[in-house]
Amino acid sequence: MQERSISDLMAARAAGELSAADLADHFLARIQCLDGDLNSLVSICGDSARERARATDAGDVENATGKLAGLPILHKDIFCTRGVRTGCGSRMLDNFVAPYDATAVAGLNSAGAITLGKTNMDEFAMGSSNETSFHGPVANPWNTSHVPGGSSGGSAAAVAAGLAPAATGTDTGGSIRQPAALCGVTGIKPTYGRVSRYGMIAFASSLDQGGCFARSAEDCAHVLQSMAGFDPRDSTSVERDVPDYSAALSGDIAGLRIGLPQEYFAQGLDPASRAVVDAAIAELEGLGAEIVEIGLPHTELAVSTYYVLAPAEASSNLARYDGVRYGHRCADPVDLDDLYTRSRAEGFGREVQRRIMIGAYVLSAGYYDAYYLKAQKTRRLIARDFSEAFDQVDLIAAPVTQAPAFKLGEKLDDPVAMYLNDIYTIPANLAGIPGMSVPAGFVDGLPVGLQLLAPWFEEARLLNAGHAFQQATDWHTYRPPGFE
Amino acid sequence: MMSLGWETVIGLEVHIQLATRSKIFSSAPTAYGAEPNTQASAVDIALPGVLPVINAGVIRMATMFGLAIDAQIAPYSVFARKHYFYPDLPKGYQISQFELPIVSAGHLDITLADGREKRVGITRAHLEEDAGKSLHEMFDRHTGIDLNRAGTPLVECVSEPEMASAAEAVAYARKLHALVQYLGICDGNMQEGSFRVDANVSVRPAGTHEFGTRTETKNVNSFRFLEQAIDFEIERQIDVLESGGSIVQETRLFDPDAGETRSMRSKEEAHDYRYFPDPDLLPVAIDTDFVDAARADLPELPDAKRARFGQQYALSDDDAAALTASRELADYFEATVAAVGGDARANGKPAANWIMGELSGALNRDGLAITGAPVTADQLGGLIARINDNTISGKIGKDVFEALVAGEGASADAVIDARGLRQITDSGEIEAFVDQVITDNPDQVQQYKDGKTKVVGFLVGQVMKASKGKANPREVNQRLVAKLDAL
What is the residue-wise DSSP string for B442-482? Predict the structure, then answer.
């Protein structure tokens, strides 16, 4: 069942061949059996999922005929889910039960999707390996001694292991595309403003964007359809029609101009991974795409720009976690300072504390101009690189990471090496453009992804290119041993 | 309260609570006095994942305010986050405006004690959200937090340091207070904190130009306290300086019971608020159409109304100023004159006298505001009309007014009829009283005939007394003199 596409599953349910209860039971059973070694889930909503599945089958819920009626789905634990603990990978929110659904979750619910559980993640989405989670690291299903990537590592690993047909994720600097690449699944980060951030716990507000993981571009199109759209509760969401993504999947990319940014193929890129990416690009060319070399000259500024802006916003966004109204509170505070200091010192892990300190520093009087303001300027240069590139090409193709998944613990004590892991994904966040990772091959048994980037709001073009690639290749159909 | 050799520099920061129904960034209601934490939404308590959305009414009100103080309305203004930790600040930052406020470079003209006008500059006015309240008294060794007020929209209006005395500062604050109520953007309730004035005060040797070190005094919730607080602070600073000390830049609290300001004792550590533009909110873009629409919505402002009252109702500038002190009072006055009917220029002064005399006395006596006046403008206008047409005398009018205050009748006419106060103008009836008085007072009549004509006043009084005050005094006077002269 876990091999079937979402449209196939939905059609089978419509035909009476499968029930929502069958789907829920099947994937809950897989979670029960297979997640032990992965640690990809932090909450399992078995009872509520089964109940909702039964109600869906009985036609007792208003969305029983929704486009995704009965589709089991997992949510990254950064999305608020009503009545379910929403912990964001942190001790700070380990006791926080959200009283409301994030808009993206509500969209999927009203399409009829059924939440099976919440997925593990780096604490407050700060990490590239899923090792900063309060719930412990997630293992990569392709090799459990390797990381799944992060911060949406739980969602990527769960979909790769076939624990659910799809999962939500968020991408602030690569947190969907990088784990998708490292776990061999398809992941899309839409344009900033395409999916509402309401109810998505903020890391860096101007960069965060919700998206999804699935086994194919086609499946992603179905899921994204129910997440995207304007939300009056998010001032940065964009009032613009959402095209029919599935209808855009013609599989035809003949004549599409695809740019290869030379900066993404420079030193640092592992030769074996490069060979995989080159082969994927050759495949696209074989499908009729025109391959063009382009330049994104400010790429080298991206990581440092990002590591000023993202921590700055994070230090502010995380100020609300003070032990006063909800979340972790230290025992027996002697006074207000003690309450703040110990609650935050105990509630936040090392990486989160590091970023709060970096962020507070770059925003402080006397440093603001040199760091924050300058980073805003370089951010504009990076965005301009893309808008100029998209004058020449329709899409950009590039690697997602410099190398396949590294070993658990390998970079944990070297934050800069960890940060550099996002060198190819961060620029799209800074520019706000949509990006996707599709499975493109393997190196030493570990998946390698191909990154596709499109102009603002051209998710349909992106999904169609991924779909065309997946029609011509079978990399996305490979399953990790033991999880078939 | 000026010591010789020193001059005072005062600037005011006024927090004006905007009279919107819902909060600045959430849909929770803003009504005052609800049970703690019943008017705080997920956004107001800063739950994980929530986002602010600007209330468009707030932008409109700030624009109207900017136009009313002749300021620049920024075509592009930005919300910024101001960070500090405090339990009643749920997000750990306040959404405010920093580098690009919505309103800048305005002014307010105040009238000084000697009648001169003085222009006080307004540096800027920016939008921000209020914090919640910390309740220190209600819980033993604990502090309660009420977040009902969190997210209430405020305009913070910052004046130039251009006022030279407590009296000037009070004149400025009163003028601003009247203005925001005229605009309908603030209820002006100082007790409930809808209009909060913080006073920045410094002194310097007379004739010098460098500013002295200033203190900021908070917790001043009436104009009287504002005056007391500033005067106290001026004296205190001069005392400190004259005894060789120096002023500490600090925040002080006014204690209304002691009539003094006290250091808040909070360590005045240089607070770094780490301002940066709020990435959850788009910049506020205001185009000329929006400004024009706001301008069209502006009511008549106090200065314009005052000038018009002088012209239209033939009032002195003092009367016009007093009657336009609040929009409600001005409205009451105009409704009264309209109810009298006839010539507005002739009726303006009597209406002004009644309102600032009898009515204001009645309001003060019962601690009422003009909006709670026991006599309506229609009733008062009807009363003045009856005096004008000689139905009653001015003196009887005061009785009628008191009767209306006591709720004795629906109108002046009803009271006059019920009490039989209609003035006697029938000449036969008056003549009978006059004849009687002449007969009863032969000595005074003789005095009159001897040329002591002043005695006529006594005789008129006797006639009025006999008629129980209802005879028309002018008529009585005429008849009496005619009779006496004919004797």
Answer: HHHHHHHHTT-GGGHHHHHHHHHHHTTT-B-HHHHHHHHHH
CB neighbours of residue A479 within 10 Å: 16
**Facing A320 at nearest CB: one of B92, B272, B280:** B92
Q: Domains plus CATH for chain A?
A: 6-254+435-477 (3.90.1300.10)
Query: Is residue A105 helix, strand or coil?
Result: helix
Kindly report the number of other CB atoms within 10 A of residue A161's CB atom.
28
Residues of chain B neighbouring A96 (CB-CB closer than 8 A): 48
HEC readout, B63-105: HHHHHHCCCEECCEECEEEEECCCCCCCCCEEEEECCCCCEEE
A235 vs B54, B85, B145: nearest CB: B54
Nearest-Cα distance to chain A for B282, in Å, is 7
Catalytic residues of A: 76, 151, 175
| ipTM higher than threshold 0.90 | yes
Peptide bond into A151 cis (omega under 30): yes
For residues A344 and A338, what is the distance between their CA atoms, to the nearest angstrom?
10
- CA separation for the pair B355, B401 (Å, rounded): 11
Q: Is B145 on the interface with A (CB under 8 A)?
A: yes
pLDDT: is B267 or B321 the higher one? B321
DSSP-derived pairing of the beta strands B117-129 and B153-159: antiparallel
Spell out the domains of chain B, with CATH numbers in brackets.
Answer: 6-290 (no CATH), 300-419 (no CATH), 427-486 (1.10.10.410)
SS3 category, B204: strand
Collect all residues of chain B within an 8 Å Cβ-Cβ radius of residue A199: 49-50
Give residue B477's pLDDT: 85
Answer whether A198 sits within 8 Å of B93, measured CB to CB: no
For residue range A132-189, what is the model confidence (pLDDT) as tens digits?
Answer: 999 999 999 999 999 999 999 999 999 999 999 999 999 999 999 999 999 999 999 9
In this complex, do B81 and A199 lie within 8 Å of one another by their Cβ atoms? no
